[in-house]
Amino acid sequence: MSDNDLTLAAMAEELAKSADYRVLRRLLPRTTFVSSGNQNTKTAVLLDVETTGLDQRNDEVIELGMVKFDYLPDGRIVRIKDVFSSFNEPTGTIPIEVTALTGITDEMVSGQRIEETAVSSFADDAVIVIAHNASFDRKFSERYWPIFQQKAWGCSATQVDWRKHGFEGSRLGYLLNGAGYFHQAHRAVDDCHALLEILAFELPTTGSPALAILLEQARKKTIRVWAERTPFELKDALKRRGYRWSDGSDGRPRSWYVDSDESKLDEEIAFLQTDIYLRDVEPRLQILTAFDRFSVRA
Q1: pTM for this structure?
Q2: Side by side, which strands form the sheet with 77-87?
Q3: What is the pLDDT of residue 75?
């Protein structure tokens, strides 16, 4: 480290002591976090895909990044085991707006393929796959690499109530800034390293790493409640309640639906009976676990 670096580091430390300043440091990926202390560990994979668009049936993956790591039963991260990064050439040109967002050009992906055997070998020993928008990443991943259909999945964007723990929102950039860092966003493996740092962050509200909360939520069953044949004029009430619309084009019911914790199912059904249908109903229910949650199969 040069004298200039030492001076800048000292200045940052002084600024950080003042309540009038916030210091953001460039995220430098690290490989070790805490000692395992001879405890048994489990392995997880962080995954991020960059794509030509948002249509999970027609758009294509152009980059896959994964970071594999070991963690302890209490959710503390021990070490990075391996890193995977690869481009994939789509059948058409990369849209200009995607290149502007990610920096990935047609020249960078030309002739590149992501080998299924390499992906399967990398992810095989993971007990869970985590993405920061699992409902997006899982659908693309399952389409390309069948191993991800067999894995449990967690979503770091939705399965941690970040605002409850003092963050401004759930976007990765917000979370990283809240932890005191910034990084090069929208490149797959860089986003994985950033997410790992966030999951290792000890939440001031609990004293536990964010990963512990995510894993606890991922293990729980959730119940998908389908509010079929509801009056059109009540759509705003359903949206306020958190219901989302399924247009039926993917084989699911053409209906509003919401995912509810098991403990809140009776409350959800009571809402439908008293505020929507105005009568006793038994809505269609679907049990979801980490093995099918966020999947197109759900």
Answers
A1: 0.88
A2: 77-87, 61-71, 42-51, 128-131, 152-155
A3: 97
pLDDT tens-place string over residues 240-279: 999 999 998 878 899 999 999 999 999 999 999 999 999 9
Answer yes or no: is 294 within a domain: no
Contact (Cβ atoms closer than 8 angstroms) between residue 27 and residue 194: yes
Q: Nearest CA to 257 among 281, 290, 235, 280?
A: 235
Give residue 1's pLDDT band: very low, low, confident or very high (50, 70, 90).
Answer: low
Give the closest residue to 90 by CA, choosing from 105, 69, 75, 77.
105
Q: What is the H or E stretch that residue 22 is in?
A: none
Burial class (CB in 10 A: 0-12, 13-18, 19+), 7: exposed
Where is the domain boundary, 203, 219, 235?
219
Q: Residue 167's domain is classified under what CATH number?
A: 3.30.420.10
Instruction: Give CA separation, 72 vs 128, 204, 209, 276, 289, in Å.
Output: 13, 19, 11, 45, 22
Question: 42-51 and 128-131 as β-strands: parallel, antiparallel, unpaired?
Answer: parallel
Contact 101, 186 (CB under 8 A): yes
* Rounded distance between C-alpha atoms, residue 261 and residue 223, angstroms: 6
Q: Taking Cα atoms as reference points, which of 202, 56, 46 lies closest to residue 132?
A: 46
Would you state the structure tokens that stand for residue 267, as one six-digit string?
A: 């409350």
Mean pLDDT computed over 222-251? 94
Q: Are 89 and 114 in contact (CB under 8 A)?
A: no
Q: How far apart are CA 187 and CA 101, in angstroms?
A: 9
State the total domains in the chain. 2
Question: What are the pLDDT digits (tens) for 143-176?
Answer: 999 999 999 999 999 999 999 998 988 998 889 8
Do residues 194 and 271 both lie within one domain? Answer: no
What type of residue is 108?
M
The range of the structural domain enclosing residue 61 comes to 23-219
Instruction: Quickly list H helices, 116-227.
Output: 116-123, 134-144, 172-178, 188-200, 210-219
